[in-house]
Task: structure prediction
Amino acid sequence: MLRALLILFCLLAAGPAGAAERQFTLLHTNDWQSRLLGYGPNTEYSPETTGDDDTVGGVARLASLIDERRVAAGEQPVLLLDAGDFTMGTLFHTVTREYAGELRLLSRLGYDATTLGNHEFDFRPKGLAAMLDAAHRALGAQLLPVLSSNLRFDPDSVEDDALEAHQRAGRIRPYLVIERGGLRFGLFGLLGRDAAEVAPLARPVRFADPVESARKMVKRLREQERVDVVIALSHMGVSRQADGNWRGEDVELAEQVPGLDIVVGGHSHTALAEPLLVNGVPVLQAGSEIQYLGELRMAVADDGRVRMLDYRLHPIDDRIPGDPTISREVDALKQALDERMLVPLGYRFDQPLARVDRRLTRAYEDQVLANLVTDALRKAVDAELAFTGNGTIRDDLIRGRSGVQAVSDLFRIAPLGIGEYDEAPGYPLVKVYFTGREIKHILEVLLLAYQLRDSDSYFPRVSGLRLTYNPWRVPFDRVSRIEIGDEARGYQELDLAASRLYSVAASSYVASFTWLIPELTKGLLDVVPKDASGRPFAALREAVVDADPQRPGVQEYKEWQALLDHVRRLPDLDGDGLADIPTQGAAAEQRMIRHASLSPQELFRNAGYLQWGAAALLAVLLLGVLWLGWRLARGRVAKL
Result:
């Protein structure tokens, strides 16, 4: 009896030890967007010292923080992962095809894997292939794996062959297995539906359904690879609803794919202070632009159950000294892009260009930055009007401590795009002509997109005109007044019936939508982009402005260069050698005016057939109701 009790005691004592959990740490980022020098004026960033700048982020500081957190993890295994969009957004991305600075830095910092975001395709599949070529030449086997489980190539097109070659070489993989600290980790990467929708230059590459792809990956990793932990690197996103709940493709992934343990997310630029626990699965996201490093601690029991221990979202700021080796790599990239991109145009990366007295934002009620950008477009090609969308303005102009804005700071305002002719970074400017009625149609479509999407990214920004709209009117007929001119010259109401053509400046990206308006409106609105003589343009390329007609070919004038040139020409009011960006008066005028009114004058001012037709239909319905009421009342009287 005593011997049996002793054996039972030993078994019970051994139980907890046998079921001891194995712990690991996961560090993560997402959406670097080439923001290597942090979130602030680049000339003020000083990673070599602490306590002397207000810049948030910076890859040199991130490197130091990663080293610190590795040390803090002790003997635990540590994974370092990124969820895509590591490129596109600053001057550094302009040489990513030649130098692959972002991929090289991810590798230098010891990342175990990243995935592809929509911006990795902004230079088309050939551009991404060139980036991987450059990174592989520089790093060889030290290049981190790029994971993409739902990437699909077109067997009938040569446009994605160079990228497909990287998949065959193993530099793009559907999944990855890492053995570390006695644990087997299975990782895979996904690009979501929304991200694919905003990556039009990815064609002919396409992306399979992310949820179905994830189910296949989980099954393979669990059943064939026998991993202990399954992690999805997801460039899909989350969003907070009006009721406070979180939704989005990452939440759907965790809900619909059994067997997932962790979702490391990106795309929506959401800084989640705590993971979203969806069916027990932590869904993570660490903001964007290297402003944070996420740290998740997990434990794996002997029975395979994985549970979260704790989570921290580390801010990256001036309290962290930067890694000097990484700073030197960034400086080398700056020198390379100066030589390749800027010096031929008369600029340098760190060249101070202007001063501003406050932060300029992309908020609806803050007009200054949008007016500055659209004025630059209009003047660059000597057009009467200019259009853009708020979403194409990609950054605020951050005052910092001194207000000084360098070339690299101003570039971030309009950094995106690729040429129609030259494959060089930046959307080229186009100049097209429209009648007054067509201008109204364009504005109607821009307004409706803004209201339907309920997003500040979609509302229009304009120069050379002022518009008033009434949200009580029917869609596609809400613009009640358009005035041509500006604060200095005054405004004159646009004659919608006149046949006169007006010249309009825009980036190739924004202008491309005017070709689609008849399709987008199902034929309700008609817009035909034309040249100065009224001849319709057959394609967007025909409208691209040639900055130097004396040279062979088309010399594209980029949106970002137009902005730099415009700012450099602004007056120097205080004699300090820098242009002063105006923030008061005409610079801050409101050019899109919302005037909600049910007065007949405002309901029908400059109305088209849609508004009049809706009013007529409503009148007929009202008369029908009154007639029916009269008949019913008359019938009751007759019975009496």
User: Anything to note?
Assistant: The radius of gyration is 29 Å.
